[in-house]
Design brief:
18% strand, seven-stranded parallel sheet, binds UDP-4-deoxy-4-formamido-beta-L-arabinopyranose, binds nicotinamide-adenine-dinucleotide, alpha/beta
Length: 332
């Protein structure tokens, strides 16, 4: 089977390419390299010993995607390409709506034109807004608090609507919780430009000495130690979930929605402690005010993915911290 991976040189996409290749899929990637580098392709090939076909293409330039579709017949598309920084989306809403929404519309038009109607979409736990209870199941009410989240919720709706008039469409919406960690080789991982917004990339920069200390955003939440609780999931576990989702998308029609999380909640201070113990380093931190828009607690009920996709996360927090640290040291 041949799979198109949009955004395949990015953080989650690159790990997913590895898992697909190791399972025997043929992989074609396109990316505009806005937030990733071309040498990721070489790293994926080094890890797997297999080749992928890479195109530099931009979803906003529809014709740049045409060779990708004209030169291959795809069994399914895994759609990672998009912009993902919550704070930036508040500052630049048009950029986010244009890239994520208009880009995906162009992609879907190409898929229709070339007769590939199976898509696995990177959604996010952000579509649950501020959940009233945890763990979160897929039928919880949906809402968003920022333009990034709104693009995810709108795209969930747009992709679902495609399935109404045309029964050949199959859409799998994967709602990721908090992906962290890196490939065990140390070759693939997440290295954001500038000062990181997310917790683990920030901790990694403190650990390698690029930043002096971690600011912990609030210790007065209604959680066991007062700091925010999240469902951190190893990016390799997340990547494996996409392989199961491909099997679903190519064997079912209509819309299927799954949480991809571990079902465990860890606080910011839990992460600091486990990172320090796993890696023998100290992470200096100080308590800062709450970050606007943050919620106290967010973790998944991942049972539906286990029951219907036969997938569950395997790696524990210690392993996530070890792999993050190895990547940080090898890519300073
Ligand atoms: P990433 O930025 O590492 O990867 C996204 C890739 O898409 C990048 O390589 C970027 O260059 C590419 N891209 C962006 N706009 C494009 C365009 N117009 N045309 C072609 N390529 C384009 O991000 P990631 O962490 O790997 O996330 C992948 C997907 O998962 C995104 O859609 C993101 O919103 C979603 N997601 C991520 C997280 C997370 O915490 N990392 C959580 C939930 C959902
Ligand atoms: C985790 C916890 C912070 C940084 C975001 C997006 C979400 C999804 C995943 C894409 C929180 C605390 C953080 C720091 C801190 N992405 N923190 N100091 O906010 O749960 O989710 O990424 O879909 O949509 O919103 O992740 O890693 O930013 O924060 O104390 O320097 O760490 O307050 O409790 P978040 P995060």
């Amino acid at each position: 089977m041949k799979i198109l991976v949009t955004g395949g040189t990015g953080y989650i996409g690159s790990h997913t390419c590895v898992e697909l290749l190791q399972k025997g899929y043929e992989v074609v990637v396109f990316d505009n390299l806005y937030n990733s580098k071309r040498d990721v392709v070489d790293k994926i090939e080094k890890i797997t010993g297999k080749k992928i076909t890479f195109y530099k293409a931009d979803m906003l330039d529809k014709e740049s995607m045409r060779p990708v579709f004209a030169e291959h017949t795809f069994d399914a598309v895994i759609h990672f390409a998009g912009l993902k920084a919550v704070g930036e989306s508040v500052e630049k809403p048009l950029l986010y709506y244009k890239n994520n929404i208009a880009g995906t519309l162009n992609l879907c038009e190409m898929m229709n034109e070339y007769g590939c109607k199976k898509i696995i979409f990177s959604s996010s736990a952000t579509v649950y807004g501020s959940p009233e209870t945890v763990p979160i199941t897929e039928d919880f009410p949906l809402s968003t608090t920022n333009p990034y989240g709104s693009t995810k919720l709108m795209l969930e709706g747009i992709l679902s609507d495609l399935c109404v008039p045309d029964k050949e469409w199959s859409v799998v919406l994967l709602r990721y919780f908090n992906p962290i960690g890196a490939h065990e080789s140390g070759l693939l991982g997440e290295s954001p430009n500038g000062i990181p917004n997310n917790l683990m990339p920030y901790i990694m920069q403190v650990a390698v000495g690029k930043l002096p200390e971690l600011g912990v955003f609030g210790n007065d939440y209604d959680t066991p130690d007062g700091t925010g609780v999240r469902d951190y999931i190893h990016v390799v576990d997340l990547a494996k979930g996409h392989v199961n989702a491909v099997e679903k998308a190519t064997s079912a029609n209509g819309v299927n929605i799954y949480n991809l999380g571990t079902g465990n909640g860890y606080s910011v201070l839990d992460i600091v402690k486990v990172f320090e113990a796993a890696n023998g380093v100290t992470i200096p931190y100080s308590i800062k005010p709450r970050r606007a828009g943050d919620i106290a607690t967010c973790y998944a009920n991942p049972k539906k993915a286990k029951d219907e996709l036969g997938w569950e996360a395997k790696y524990d927090l210690q392993r996530m911290c070890e792999d993050s640290w190895r990547f940080a040291k090898m890519n300073q």
